[in-house]
Amino acid sequence: MFDEKDLLIDARHVTRRFPTNDGRLLTACDDINLKFYKGKTLGLVGESGCGKSTFMRFLVWLDYPTEGEIFFHGKDITKMKGAELHENRQHIQMVFQDPSTSFNPKMKIKEIVCEPLLNFNRIKPSEMDAKARELLELVELPGDFADRFPHNMSGGQRQRVAIARAIALEPEFIVMDEATSALDVSVQKTVIELITRLQREKNIAIGFICHDLGLIESFAHQVAVMYLGNIVEVMPGEGLSDVCCHPYSRALLASVFDTKMDFTKKIENIKGEPPSPLDLPPGCPFSNRCPHCTERCEHEKPKLVELTPGHEVACHLFTK
Ligand SMILES: Nc1ncnc2c1ncn2[C@@H]1O[C@H](COP(=O)(O)OP(=O)(O)OP(=O)(O)O)[C@@H](O)[C@H]1O
């Protein structure tokens, strides 16, 4: 579906297990394979605790997988150290959910947005004012905000500052972890419009973590649905509601506000609780909640199989 020459990040067989105090292992990510392409957004959706943040944190060196490899321009980022790691950090940036907790309240906006540029000696301190203004205007904020402090801005404005800071180094890839979830719906829409405009202009690849399949459908080029540490479906973002077929994706889609206001559709509620990641079932991770569960599902874990180009699903309903 995407041109393989535009492949930017290729995560292969990525697994993360956390040891617990009582000597057991919690599997937060289980054999994840995902590809990120230049200038495209991959939305990663799933319920709280399914492993979305754990996976995305590997891409910005905030954590390391227990097994697997993550290739960026053909080099495994999980093995990078020293000067190579320092150099590559410039190319991958992150925007967090709530910038008020990630900004130093004592720093002016110009110091916040220019800090990465100063750290990498890309500008001199004397160039900070002009650069901050340029970056703020790029995210549609007045240049005068450069002298403000973060607490003198709204949540939406602070998130624009976080985006300005993230794009300052002209990265090739940005991880956005619930970057619009703390904003009200109208502000969320304008921030998404900003992100998509910057992506088009600068050809940035984005990994966007989100709870809301309805929101992600509106702008992601591909969407991966995660359940209990596993990717259960990968599909194109456009027209997602028509093609998505994994029983968990369908339930997730039905449980979000129906943006098309199609009240004729049957709402499938997700029953029960996900099993503990400390005690994964031997078969399909969704088997105990799935209305279509068969004996095979309880014993045999389904693999992701391609249904059509760009659409993969891990469900025995779709495999022979
Ligand atoms: N450092 C850690 N030590 C032990 N367990 C962890 C650690 N980090 C995450 N986990 C566990 O890994 C699982 C996945 O967590 P993660 O934060 O990745 O989920 P998530 O899908 O991003 O959730 P949310 O949307 O709430 O942020 C959870 O069961 C969590 O408790």
Automatic annotation (TrEMBL):
Signal peptide: none annotated. Keywords: ATP-binding, Nucleotide-binding, Transport. The keyword Ribonucleoprotein does not apply. GO terms for molecular function: ATP binding; ATP hydrolysis activity. It comes from the Bacteria. GO terms for biological process: peptide transport; transmembrane transport. Residues 9-253 form the ABC transporter domain. InterPro entries: AAA+_ATPase, ABC_transp_ATP-bind, ABC_transporter-like_ATP-bd, ABC_transporter-like_CS, Oligopep_ABC_C, P-loop_NTPase. SUPFAM superfamilies: P-loop containing nucleoside triphosphate hydrolases (SSF52540). Belongs to the ABC transporter superfamily. PANTHER family: ABC TRANSPORTER, ATP-BINDING PROTEIN, TRANSPORT ATP-BINDING PROTEIN. This is Oligopeptide/dipeptide ABC transporter, ATP-binding protein, C-terminal domain-containing protein.
